[in-house]
Amino acid sequence: MSIDEGTAAKVAKLARIKVEPEELPHLAAEFNNILGFIEQLGEVDVDGVEPMVSVTPMRLKRRTDGVTDGGMQERILSNAPDAREGFFAVPKVVE
Amino acid sequence: MLDLTYDTPKPKVISGATGDWELVIGMEIHAQVSSEAKLFSGASTRFGAEPNSNVAFVDAAMPGMLPVINEFCVEQAVRTGLGLKADINLVSAFDRKNYFYPDLPQGYQISQLYHPIVGEGEVLVELSEGIARLVRIERIHLEQDAGKSIHDMDPHMSFVDLNRTGVALMEIVSRPDIRGPEEAAAYVGKLRQILRYLGTCDGNMQNGNLRADVNVSVCRPGQYEKYQATQDFGHLGTRCEIKNMNSMRFIQAAIEVEARRQIAILEDGGKVDQETRLYDPDKNETRSLRSKEEAHDYRYFPCPDLMPLEIEQGWVDDIAAALPELPDAKKARFMQDFGLTDYDAAVLTAELENAAFFEKAAQGGDGKLAANWVINELFGRLKKDDRAIADSPVSPEQLAGIIRLIKSDAISGKIAKDLFEIVYTEGGDPEAIVEARGMKQVTDTGAIEAAVDEIIAANPAQVEKAKANPKLAGWFVGQVMKATGGKANPKAVNDLVAAKLAL
Q1: Which of B242, B329, B369, B460 is deepest in the core (most CB within 10 A)?
Q2: Does the distance separating the beta carbons of A87 and B161 come in below 8 Å?
């Protein structure tokens, strides 16, 4: 797999990160380095090895169905650049 | 034995300028799990709360907060799967679906793309007596709901409420087995009924607790059968997805108008683009969401915050053992045990509350009679007062009492209606009311005979007419009923009148 400048631009757009065009070749090269590094893992023979999802023998933690949280509108909104009448206020997003 | 085989309905056909077209529809139903708390946080799911008050730091995606799964939500997904006769996957896993939108603070939705908790199942959708479509379920997965954006409170700003963010949804995905707008609505209705029976989702469409994405394509007659034979989508047309509908009426209208739009394109020699569209009920048209579509590269990957979800077969078996009787089984039992018609059984099993009410009323000793009284008298009366069955002034036990009185010939059918009205408006024990108010039917033939004699003696001209035309005997029956205040046993009166007139 090889990342060209177009793909790098697309990834940046999807991640909502502004990238100047002159930075794209460098970014694409970095991506390729990372992917190349990861591709080395393909050399390991994992035939018959069960996939490991965690390094600790842990079961997914569960909670019971009870209301134990919430009721803190003010704290939830406290970091918002703009909040009105209990809502986050953001620049208009229209579909 | 009941005949439980069904004929397959005919697909909807739309005649175009170049020939007939058929519709092919698949649906994704988002059903909100009936839990108190959210899927991964302890915040409440209650509808209509102050904005942003049902929000935990996990839901607001504060840095460092980790999701912990609500076991009740997992149980409801399993229960739903079992109710749809589906395979339960003992190991499932969560993935991140990445996209940016102001009401999705995490920047991703936690969902189950690769390993859903529920696999293939089925829903039998009855369209009319003896006609039903078996719709295959592809999968059910658990996922988080997004928040709510409000665009009309301010000309330049959108307002965001995260109360809904992180609420557990079951996405129920069907195969493209639905063949017309009416079938689509019937499918949603049947699924909603099953979910309500199971208690896993309240099915409240108005509040958005049950919403549908509808995939629509059109093809020429014969193509669908080729698809069914091979499961190769290449035989079908390109589909468009109409997003987020929460009304049966709009679902039907949207499918119709979208199918016609696609047909017009194809007949013009054009090509349908696979895309997401929105239905606008005011203009009755679907609109492209293409601008958003371009950005929809979700880059799914396994959610590193959550281990795979492993459940035990024993737990699944316990849930299966505790499943309630489901609509199809209940309807069949009502037909078999009480001798109800297909229609009556369908009406009475539409809602669990109705079925429970009916079963208690049928304790009066006659299921068919109980069905008639519940459907015609009770539902009619409740509708007049705009009341739900849950606050019916007549309890099922009272109705059973009325039915017992009719059944034992203690009261006539006409008096029973008066009695029903008294119980409805004033309450009380039907039997005691009948005693106290002297409403008992006169079965004493001596008393009836006297009344018959009296009427015959007083109306010699009518007697002559009735002898010439026996159909006129009914007049005497009516007069006797009137004279006895409706309390005479109609059959006894009939017999006596006929005997006295020597008909």
Answers
A1: B242
A2: yes
